[in-house]
């Protein structure tokens, strides 16, 4: 409410729109987001986005989005059946044996010859006209509608008899079967690499040279075996017990290399069903080999790593892509689905997964909570489909009848969940009334904290944005606790104010309490405050607040409050608590960290309502166990200053020691900011300096695992901040309450 009353949903900044779109691996999610309004559509056209995550083409006009398990329906032409795909083109046949490639978004069509008739012409009359055929298409360049488009088609029947057809300008310029060639076996797969066509047959690799001596009619005058040695029979993983191993190869061009990807499938033996011996067969491993195309060794070389590549393998189409360019893709992994000729009546996800080359572990292709129940797809096998994020085509195909207000609640939740910045979430929910209503139903993780700069401005750690939220006219901010600001007023009063709801909790006049206990303290030193609460603040009469009041001379007073009354207070110096460093609550008990790493527990008696008192003080830790701690080394010729923090974490009590050098030292910047990092300590400059400067001058994220400090904000997002005046910056944890 506080931030969006004057905002227009159409005014979402283009950089924020780009941030959201880049984090959506699903094309459908991107399309829905851009369908919100004309400004969003216009701005989206100016953004450079990574490709969306691939789909599975189920061949019946439906597509399965791998990133979220959503099913998309894009009807085929009335007389067409789908038998495969290549990149973002569908391979279609019609009732008259006509063949074509169609882009389902733009509806552009590329005619092909009648391939089934070519098959039967090459194989002769011995083959039934009803023979079920499977098609694998390969192209040297991305397909378009130019007159120079070249397509190679491998046709197989269930017994793996093969015919290759070369198509140029929509005409079959050559076709052949293998008894005419010096080859005793059939081709299992084909692929282009470096503009040349290669074919795989029983572990042997062939080049299929094409000649264009006859204009517009490329021919295949020569087929040559260039790799003869079949990969070793020793597998990286043994076949599961009571199974026999069946292999299937895929030929994939990857980063300039030609790879033979061998899929190892365990088939139960003896079979439980003699009529279906491949029932319950499962992939258990992969092996990858690279063809030596340069040294002339005529060998396959074992490949242990794919680098940053992710392979998507299938009998209809295989592709290698850079995982860094696709949101959600895992590098050094092989994505596969069930494409076994003998299991065409099964769920296409029954043997699908992601094989990790480094660990040898197979994980599900989709999470159980997103995987739909799929039925047999009919003709052919599922195939990979790589939708291009072409703005105009996608919008025409998917959102002509869509209303931006109809964005599905689960998609809205997905977008909101991926925004660590509260301001970004508020702007997105401000789009329209349905979005605001649906947002209330979405359980969201807390937004990333802000830094309160004590002058009514707040720094968002996730993106470096500055938010201005004015304080009351008579108030100054000294610190914060959770999502409440600690304010002092001109009349000497103190209060806690919720920045968003404006709810206020009155506190006693802490300066008066300070003067009562430390009347002799030098008045020229400003006072600083640290607050702790045993439970989240509310307006109940039993609310408890403990305040530590201190100055730069380390003189301190402790005050127990049951707002708005101070029920007990005392001077720390001269008491058991002298040397107090920090304090916090754990399980309703107050703990105090003392010099020399001593830990005290202060029991607070709340039996008398409205008058809680400290009933006992006990030292429970009087030394630090250094036996398991490696001594930390520091640069020579530096003076080291240590600061101590007491933090409740996951039901435990932690003492965090911060080592400061009294001279600037270089950080090692190795990791992106903007997303919460586990096992890390976030810190800012919160100690006194004679000449106050940028409050980010000594801030960062310390990684407990590697000991490296990274910047709190990236250079590109870090603003130039001025001294905040009174006090030091403080963490502020905004609550994401959709109102």
TrEMBL record:
Domain KIB1-4 beta-propeller: 63-356, 458-659
SUPFAM superfamilies from the UniProt entry: F-box domain
Pfam family, one: Beta-prop_KIB1-4
Matching InterPro entries: F-box-like_dom_sf (IPR036047), KIB1-4_b-propeller (IPR005174)
Protein name per Swiss-Prot or TrEMBL: KIB1-4 beta-propeller domain-containing protein
């Amino acid at each position: 409410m506080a931030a969006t009353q004057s905002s227009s949903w159409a005014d979402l900044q283009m950089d924020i729109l780009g941030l959201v779109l880049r984090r959506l691996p699903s094309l459908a999610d991107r399309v829905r987001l851009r369908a919100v309004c004309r400004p969003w559509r216009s701005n989206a056209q100016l953004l450079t986005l990574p490709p969306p995550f691939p789909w599975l083409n189920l061949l019946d006009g439906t597509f399965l989005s791998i990133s979220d398990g959503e099913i998309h329906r894009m009807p085929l032409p009335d007389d067409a059946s789908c038998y495969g795909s290549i990149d973002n083109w569908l391979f279609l046949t019609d009732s008259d044996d006509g063949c074509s490639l169609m882009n389902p978004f733009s509806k552009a069509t590329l005619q092909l010859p009648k391939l089934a008739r070519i098959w039967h012409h090459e194989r002769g009359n011995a083959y039934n006209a009803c023979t079920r055929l499977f098609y694998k298409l390969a192209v040297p360049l991305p397909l378009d509608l130019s007159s120079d488009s070249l397509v190679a088609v491998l046709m197989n029947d269930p017994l793996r008899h093969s015919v290759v057809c070369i198509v140029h300008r929509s005409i079959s310029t050559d076709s052949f079967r293998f008894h005419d060639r010096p080859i005793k076996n059939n081709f299992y797969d084909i692929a282009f690499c470096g503009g040349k066509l290669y074919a795989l047959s029983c572990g042997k690799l062939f080049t299929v040279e094409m000649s264009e001596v006859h204009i517009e009619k490329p021919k295949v005058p020569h087929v040559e075996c260039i790799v003869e040695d079949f990969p070793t029979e020793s597998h990286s993983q043994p076949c599961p017990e009571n199974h026999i191993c069946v292999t299937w190869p895929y030929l994939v061009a990857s980063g300039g290399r030609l790879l033979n990807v061998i899929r190892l499938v365990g088939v139960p033996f003896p079979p439980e069903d003699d009529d279906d011996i491949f029932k319950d067969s499962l992939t258990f491993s992969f092996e990858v080999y690279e063809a030596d195309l340069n040294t002339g060794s005529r060998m396959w070389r074992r490949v242990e790593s794919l680098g940053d590549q992710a392979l998507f393998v299938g009998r209809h189409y295989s592709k290698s892509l850079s995982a860094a360019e696709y949101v959600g893709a895992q590098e050094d992994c092989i994505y596969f689905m069930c494409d076994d000729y003998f299991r065409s009546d099964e769920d296409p996800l029954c043997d699908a997964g992601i094989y990790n080359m480094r660990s040898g572990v197979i994980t599900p292709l989709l999470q159980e909570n997103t995987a739909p129940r799929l039925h047999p797809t009919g003709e052919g096998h599922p195939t990979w489909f790589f939708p291009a994020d072409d703005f105009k085509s996608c919008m025409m195909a998917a959102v002509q009848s869509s209303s931006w207000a109809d964005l599905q609640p689960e998609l809205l939740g997905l977008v909101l969940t991926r925004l660590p910045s509260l301001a970004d979430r508020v702007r997105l929910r401000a789009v329209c009334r349905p979005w605001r209503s649906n947002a209330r139903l979405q359980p969201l993780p807390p937004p990333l904290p802000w830094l309160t700069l004590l002058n009514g401005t707040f720094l968002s750690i996730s993106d470096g944005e500055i938010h201005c939220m004015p304080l009351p006219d008579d108030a100054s901010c000294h610190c914060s606790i959770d999502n409440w600001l600690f304010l002092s007023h001109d009349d000497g009063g103190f209060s806690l104010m919720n920045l968003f709801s404006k709810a206020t909790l009155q506190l006693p006049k802490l300066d008066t309490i300070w003067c009562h206990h430390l009347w002799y303290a030098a008045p020229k030193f400003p006072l600083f405050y640290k607050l702790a609460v045993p439970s989240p603040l509310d307006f109940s009469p039993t609310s408890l607040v403990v305040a530590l009041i201190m100055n730069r001379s380390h003189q301190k007073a402790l005050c127990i409050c049951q707002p708005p009354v101070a029920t007990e207070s005392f001077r720390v110096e001269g008491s058991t608590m002298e040397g107090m460093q920090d304090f916090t609550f754990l399980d309703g008990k107050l703990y105090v960290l003392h010099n020399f790493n001593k830990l005290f527990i202060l029991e607070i008696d709340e039996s008398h309502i409205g008058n809680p008192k400290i009933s006992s003080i006990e030292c429970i830790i009087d030394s630090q166990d250094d036996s398991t701690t490696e001594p930390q080394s520091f640069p020579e010729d530096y003076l080291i200053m240590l600061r101590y923090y007491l933090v409740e974490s996951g039901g435990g009590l932690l003492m965090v020691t911060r080592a400061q050098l009294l001279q600037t030292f270089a950080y090692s910047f190795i990791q992106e900011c903007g997303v919460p990092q586990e096992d890390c300590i976030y810190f800012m400059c919160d100690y006194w300096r004679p000449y106050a400067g940028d409050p980010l001058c000594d801030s960062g994220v310390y990684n407990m695992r590697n000991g490296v400090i990274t910047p709190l904000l990236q250079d590109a997002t870090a603003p130039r901040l001025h001294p905040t005046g009174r006090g030091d910056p403080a963490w502020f944890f905004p609550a994401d309450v959709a109102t």
